[in-house]
């Protein structure tokens, strides 16, 4: 029961942070999404996201902050083994090929075409 409660509280707090970013800081949903991914990446980089996952389980792995955690976690693990090339390949190895290709092709499309906004 305690595991479900901690997952609910941590997942809910992550969602509250996202909602506050949109409501109070007037960030767009895209900026909020990016901020949450970066927060997850920073927390993993300083070693705080894994203990959060151990405490909250799905409350920490389901929100978008977990994607930032996965990117940094894979990059750091592969970087230790293969150097700078491992940093780049680690991102692709840990995250799914579909998500990685979506990031690359979206970036390339933004370089080629002028986004409307």
Automatic annotation (TrEMBL):
One Pfam family named in its UniProt record: SpoVAC_SpoVAEB
PANTHER family xref list: STAGE V SPORULATION PROTEIN AC-RELATED, STAGE V SPORULATION PROTEIN AEB
Protein name: Stage V sporulation protein AE
Transmembrane segments: 84-113
Stored InterPro entries: Spore_V_AE, SpoVA
Organism this protein belongs to: Aliibacillus thermotolerans
UniProt keyword annotations, A-Z: Membrane, Transmembrane, Transmembrane helix
């Amino acid at each position: 029961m305690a595991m479900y409660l901690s997952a609910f509280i941590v997942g809910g707090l992550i969602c509250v942070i996202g909602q506050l970013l949109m409501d109070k800081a007037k960030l767009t949903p895209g900026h909020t999404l990016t901020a949450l991914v970066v927060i997850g990446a920073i927390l993993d980089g300083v070693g705080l996201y894994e203990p959060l996952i151990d405490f909250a389980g799905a409350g920490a792995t389901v929100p978008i902050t977990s994607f930032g955690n996965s990117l940094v976690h894979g990059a750091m693990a592969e970087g230790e083994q293969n150097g700078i090339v491992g940093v780049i390949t680690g991102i692709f190895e840990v995250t799914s090929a579909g998500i990685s290709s979506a990031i690359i092709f979206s970036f390339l499309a933004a370089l080629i075409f002028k986004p409307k906004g």
